[in-house]
Amino acid sequence: MWSSDLVFGIFFFYQTALGFLGNSTMLMVYINIFITQPQQKKTTDLILAHLTMANTMTLLTRGVPEMLVAFGMRDVLNDAGCQSLMYINRVCRGLSICTTCLLSVFQAITISPSTSRWAWFKSRAPNYILPSFLFFWILNMLIYIKVITSIQGLRNSTIFWVGYTSKYCFTILDGNYIHTMASLTAMTLRDFFFLFFMSWASCYMVIILYQHRKRVQHIHSTSLSPIFSPETKATQTILLLVTCFVCFYFISSFITLYVIYVLQRDVDLEGTATFFSACYPALCPLVLISSDPRVNRNHCSLGNVRPPSLSMNPMANRVISEH
């Protein structure tokens, strides 16, 4: 009979490995496009590259410690390690929700018709991408600054305080309820704000796609299979990403809140909440890889790169290749 730690360790291993490989692949594709194939660049590529980076850091800073602890490596982090790791993890997780919201809003503006009130903003929207990234970083770094002082490693204490406790770190309730409530309020308002705009943009895109489908339905009535434009395919991909994010966000948040306020600690539920919170960073690159044809083209172009010639003499190269 396998223990729950071993089961969680196997799940975290496959989740982290699969997510890291997928995110690394997408980062390599975006870097290759930005440097060598700028003609293939899309306006959403910079947002997707930022999202992929945030997802990679979220997976590594959460999945790797959970996996090590599940496989029996207890007390792997001291106070400084816990504070640094949890701070980076929560900042990157916050960046993920902010960037996903930006992606959905940006795509909603992109596909809006010329008669829409957002039509005037289409040409200006790309100029606000980098300032939005800077705002997201500052916002999340300030929100989670309390993590540095409220997290300790289990190595230095045998007391389990009330609150959320992982297998290698735990939260200290220092009695300063003003700072605690301010931090929780900031996180709640941030999540509500970005989830609201994410949902609004998603509903708006669904309405636009439905109206567009009704307008062109008579054109494809004699066709065996409908023809989707690149904008439609990109919108459907973003809607799938938003749906995945919202589902996993609410599942992990519900379990986490239950774990925090229940009187008896449940280690398995804590591990389940952590696993669901890392599902979106792990599955996001798989959705992008399956929907972006440039991934296969860039993979082929990278695979067809030949090593440099050993000789400048064509005749000598021919002799070498024959032998």
From TrEMBL:
Q: Which UniProt keywords apply?
A: Cell membrane, G-protein coupled receptor, Glycoprotein, Membrane, Pheromone response, Receptor, Transducer, Transmembrane, Transmembrane helix
Return the InterPro entries for the record: GPCR_Rhodpsn_7TM, Vmron_rcpt_1
Where does it reside?
Answer: Cell membrane
Q: How does it sit in the membrane?
A: Multi-pass membrane protein
| Membrane is among the record's keywords | yes
Give the Gene3D superfamilies listed for this entry: Rhodopsin 7-helix transmembrane proteins
**Annotated TM spans:** 6-33, 91-109, 129-147, 159-180, 192-210, 238-261, 273-289
Any one GO cellular component localisation term in the record: plasma membrane
Gene Ontology MF, one: pheromone binding
The residues covered by the G-protein coupled receptors family 1 profile domain are 22-288
Note the PANTHER family from the entry: VOMERONASAL TYPE-1 RECEPTOR
The similarity comment for this entry is:
Belongs to the G-protein coupled receptor 1 family.
Q: What is the role of the protein in this entry?
A: Putative pheromone receptor.
Q: Name it.
A: Vomeronasal type-1 receptor
The coding gene here is ORNANAV1R3249
